[in-house]
Amino acid sequence: MQHRYHDIALDVIPIHLGGDLNSAGVLYISDRHIPDVNTTGVVDIFVRRVLVRANDASFLPPWAKFVRGVIDSPDLQPTAARDGVQTEPTLSPSYRRLQAAIGRLIIDRLIELSREDPVRFRQINRWHHYHLKGM
Known about the structure:
By secondary structure, the chain is α+β, with helices and mostly antiparallel strands. The chain has helices at about 1-5, 95-115, 120-135; strands spanning about 10-15, 25-30, 40-45, 50-55, 65-70. The protein starts with a helix and ends with a helix.
């Protein structure tokens, strides 16, 4: 990840979803202070191991401005030009459900950190407290 995004991970969130939301990947919480309200979290989106969109800023929840990562899901539908993924529920019913599941993974990981590694959670909170409050 450091070669791709050039920052250090404060924490790593693995993605292993099965069943009707088959997805894999990794997210991480960036060490960069991100005070700008116009900043967004970004992910590289792959469909069946083929990159369809690098630095996608619309996939993660709006409050997840401190998260970066890579997601690969065969359930997403690429656009005709293969430069993005279908976001319309009629064309790609998995898109919104996958977005919600990824948001829930981030929240669950932060809750887990607050309980099991409060020192790391405090560090993340110190760096990203504006966005955590927005969550």
